[in-house]
Amino acid sequence: MHAPPDPRSDLLLNRLPDTLRPLASRGKIRRFRRGALIIREGSRGDEVFFLLQGRVRAFSTEAGAREISFAIDGVGEYFGEMALDGGARSASVEALEPTVCAVVTRQTVWDHVGRDVEFTRSLIERLIGRARWTTTRARELALFDVYGRLRRQLEALAGPADKAGERAIDERITHQALASRLGSSREMVSRLLKDLERGGYIRTARASVTLLKALPERW
After folding, report:
1. Scanning 1, 6, 100, 129, which has its CA 20 to 30 A from the CA of 74?
2. Could you tell me if 21 and 62 lie in one domain?
3. CA 161 to CA 158: how far, in whole Å?
4. Which of 200, 177, 171 is nearest to 190 (CA)?
5. Which residues pair with 88 in a beta bridge?
6. Which domain holds residue 31?
7. How far apart are alpha carbons 130 and 114 in whole angstroms?
8. What CATH number should be reported for the domain holding residue 186?
9. Element (H, E) at 107
10. Is the domain of 90 the same as that of 110?
């Protein structure tokens, strides 16, 4: 005897784009507490996760315990697709808040690829986007020092200028989170932010940053 459908799951699945909903509906609903490690880098994976609730962070840890963040995904996104070839997981993924996912096996995804052209196209575009990001990231690490990467990150996060010419960053972001995105140490990021604040370029307050004027090209 089959269990009756869970109306709560249906409501969560409706948060997904039309291209993802048919595949995600074939998965199992799993819930993760805040801070839970959903995927461990280097492990063998056989599942793709569709985000129905919450947010997750993809990251990698170096031998010296320094972290680098790759992406933060929210509702309507999916992750784990890089292991569709059956290889090892290329990054770890943790839940930033209580998170609910529809979890679909690799074989189910490949079966669906053969039947759904729109999903297949979106998957290819996503993988191309990952490749472009990796290329850009490698370029930044090779050509820019920590300050150069910090400047680019702050300018990318900042919103449009207000009447006073100030650009606020709406996202609440800690020094450690910035360091993880830049592939740097928290101490280095904290020092650079403090120097910029002393120079009158930014204002910081409780994990928030406001750009007061154009940041210098070099520091």
Report:
1. 6
2. yes
3. 9
4. 177
5. 44
6. 7-142
7. 22
8. 1.10.10.10
9. helix 106-113
10. yes
Number of compact structural domains in the chain: 2
* Residue 216 domain flag: no
Q: Give the position of tokens 């919103």.
A: 159
pLDDT tens-place string over residues 158-176: 999 999 999 999 888 889 8
Residue 172 to residues 67, 136, 153, 158, 210, Cα–Cα distance (Å): 19, 24, 14, 11, 11
Over residues 9-52, the pLDDT tens digits come to 778 899 999 999 999 999 999 999 999 999 999 998 899 999 99
Closest listed residue to residue 9, CA positions, set 183, 18, 17, 21: 21
Query: How far is the C-alpha of 129 from the C-alpha of 142, rounded, in Å?
Result: 20
In a domain, 23, yes or no: yes
Radius of gyration of the chain (CA): 20
Do residues 116 and 26 both lie within one domain?
Answer: yes
pLDDT value of residue 1: 42
Q: For the sheet containing 47-53, what is the strand order?
A: 28-32, 99-105, 47-53, 78-79
Regarding pTM above 0.85, the answer is no
Choose from 59-68, 89-98, 183-192 the range with maximum mean pLDDT.
89-98
28 and 127 assigned to the same domain: yes
Give the number of C-alpha atoms closer than 13 A to the C-alpha of residue 69, restricted to the C-beta side.
19
Is there a contact between 201 and 211 (Cβ–Cβ < 8 Å)? Answer: yes
Count of residues in the chain:
219
Rounded Cα distance, 187 and 91, in Å: 24
In a domain? residue 2: no
Q: Which two tokens stand for residue 1?
A: 């005897």
> What's the mean per-residue pLDDT of the chain?
89
